[in-house]
Task: inverse folding
């Protein structure tokens, strides 16, 4: 357990509590890698917050979430007959758990297929928003919700604000639907929607703003596994790249932990595009800055990270760590798979 996410439990939970207060009726999202904390831990935290429902991303996450959480589990991935029919046949498991699994549908065809394999499946309808990913068009939502005897409608919105009018179009088009699950909607927008649509239950699905609300409450740390001095012209690694004088530092943490596994940058501004160009040039020159901080400064990879460890190039003159020391790692927790999560 040498690549560890350390969590200040009191501070982390205080941030959760503050976020939950801003989002009444919150449906915590516990999908994927559990935002670095792991889905089981987040399910336990959702229970601590008093949530009645959590949301997972995939059918493969449904069973473990039912085991880890006592309430309802909403699968946000829409049911597709040719993709999920075998998984839906496990609905007997859901019924044994008091029918706590909730499916998402976007079309009459998939609804009929779901009813064939899981006649008693609980259902919500997803509507097609400007996100343009999954969903039924606005003109079809009311009819599909009626045919499905749906418990509600879900709306997945783009990042940012300015969603009130778009959400209102769907609510107005389906006046008989009482429960609406919404994502990426600010507390102010929720308050305005409640004012405009009295009698509707607006349930915010929240992940990042709940679990990662206070970045200072958690830190990934890696152990130093080896340190050795190197001179000019020496080489290291699989690719035998030349090293600058100083030290090679071997640290825990590699691609299996999500190190250097970044999603494509949006580069939406001139500055962001310039940064992307510079980073590309540095990568071409084998001078990539790592996410590891040694001696108070970010250091470069000696070569791309290995599966479970990384080789770092520490220039001469810097503070040299010892084997067994820990160094902080700056990385996105949504792509992190630590060996362990320790709450302090």
Result:
């Amino acid at each position: 357990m040498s690549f560890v996410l350390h969590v200040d439990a009191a501070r982390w939970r205080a941030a959760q509590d503050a976020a939950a207060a801003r989002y009444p009726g919150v449906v915590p999202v516990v999908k994927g890698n559990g935002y670095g904390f792991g889905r089981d831990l987040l399910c336990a935290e959702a229970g601590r917050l008093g949530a009645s429902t959590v949301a997972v991303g995939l059918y493969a996450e449904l069973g473990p979430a039912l085991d880890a959480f006592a309430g309802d589990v909403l699968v946000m991935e829409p049911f597709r007959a040719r993709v999920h029919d075998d998984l839906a046949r496990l609905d007997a498991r859901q019924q044994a758990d008091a029918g706590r699994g909730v499916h998402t549908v976007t079309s009459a065809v998939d609804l009929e297929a779901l009813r064939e394999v899981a006649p008693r499946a609980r259902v919500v309808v997803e509507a097609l928003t400007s996100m343009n990913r999954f969903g039924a068009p606005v003109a079809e939502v009311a009819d599909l919700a009626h045919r499905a005897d749906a418990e509600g409608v879900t709306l997945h919105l783009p990042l940012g604000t300015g969603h009130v009018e778009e959400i209102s179009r769907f609510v107005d088009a389906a006046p008989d639907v009482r429960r609406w699950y919404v994502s990426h909607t600010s507390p102010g927008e929720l308050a305005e929607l409640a004012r405009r649509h009295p009698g509707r239950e607006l349930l915010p699905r929240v992940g990042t703003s709940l679990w990662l609300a206070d970045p200072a409450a958690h830190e990934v740390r890696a152990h130093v596994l080896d340190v050795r001095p190197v001179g000019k012209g020496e080489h290291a690694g699989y690719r035998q790249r030349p090293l600058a004088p100083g030290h090679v530092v071997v640290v825990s943490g590699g691609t299996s932990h999500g190190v250097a596994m970044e999603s494509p940058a949006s580069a939406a501004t001139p500055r962001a595009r310039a940064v992307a160009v510079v980073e590309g040039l540095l990568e071409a020159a084998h001078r990539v800055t790592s996410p590891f901080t040694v001696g108070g400064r970010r250091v470069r990879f000696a070569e791309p990270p290995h599966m479970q460890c990384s080789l770092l190039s520490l220039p001469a003159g810097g503070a040299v760590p010892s084997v067994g020391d820990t160094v902080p790692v700056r990385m996105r927790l949504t792509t992190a798979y630590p060996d362990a999560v320790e709450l302090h």
Observations:
- Residues 272-285 have pLDDT under 50 and may be disordered.
- The two ends are 16 Å apart (CA to CA).
